[in-house]
């Protein structure tokens, strides 16, 4: 007799293929999940490491900013102290300026001229006095122009007093102080304000 297989072998083969397919699909899914998860963990650990390095750098930058601010304040203090030292040095150098001015005035005043008053205003000196003749006054102006310390002698007034027995004429003149002495005098006045 002929053997007839009445079992649904095609359906069972299909079920086994489906079962293999789903098993393979689940295995591939699990492998893909593991790969994606491990890649994600790897990148997340790299991101966390970079974030830690960034935070470390930010902290170090803040420390350096504080140090830079301290350096700036120290530089400001240093500049202020240097200004004070310069003023003290200039005062030290200029302490004989008054004597130099009086010495120079004594050298340039010829016989026949008498100084009655000296007033210093800024970098100029106002000279008030009496002169026996205008020639003596002209000689004094020439001596001032040749001086290393004075310049720009400007007579403001020359008057004659008829009541004077010696016929002396009164004069008023303004003379500017030049050169290093001017700087020292101006800085001395600025230093006294500090």
TrEMBL record:
Organism, scientific name: Colwellia maritima
Keyword Membrane recorded: yes
Any Pfam family the entry gives: PilN
Sequence intervals crossing the membrane: 21-43
Keyword GTP-binding: no
Protein name listed in UniProt: PilN domain-containing protein
Domain of life per record: Bacteria
Keyword terms: Coiled coil, Membrane, Transmembrane, Transmembrane helix
């Amino acid at each position: 007799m002929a053997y007839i297989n009445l079992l649904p072998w095609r359906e069972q083969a299909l079920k086994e293929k489906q079962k293999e397919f789903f098993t393979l699909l689940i295995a591939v899914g699990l492998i893909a999940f593991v790969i994606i998860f491990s890649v994600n963990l790897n990148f997340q650990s790299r991101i966390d490491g970079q974030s830690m390095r960034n935070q470390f750098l930010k902290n170090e930058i803040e420390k350096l900013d504080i140090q830079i601010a301290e350096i700036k304040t120290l530089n400001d203090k240093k500049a202020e102290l240097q200004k004070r030292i310069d003023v003290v040095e200039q005062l030290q150098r200029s302490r004989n300026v008054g004597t130099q001015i009086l010495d120079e005035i004594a050298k340039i005043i010829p016989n026949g001229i008498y100084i009655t008053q000296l007033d210093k205003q800024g970098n100029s000196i106002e000279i008030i006095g009496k002169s026996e003749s205008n020639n003596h006054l002209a000689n004094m102006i020439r001596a001032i122009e040749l001086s290393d310390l004075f310049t720009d002698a400007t007579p403001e007034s020359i008057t004659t007093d008829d009541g004077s027995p010696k016929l002396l004429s009164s004069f008023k003149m303004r003379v500017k102080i030049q050169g290093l002495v001017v700087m020292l005098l101006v800085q001395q006045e600025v230093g006294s304000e500090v």
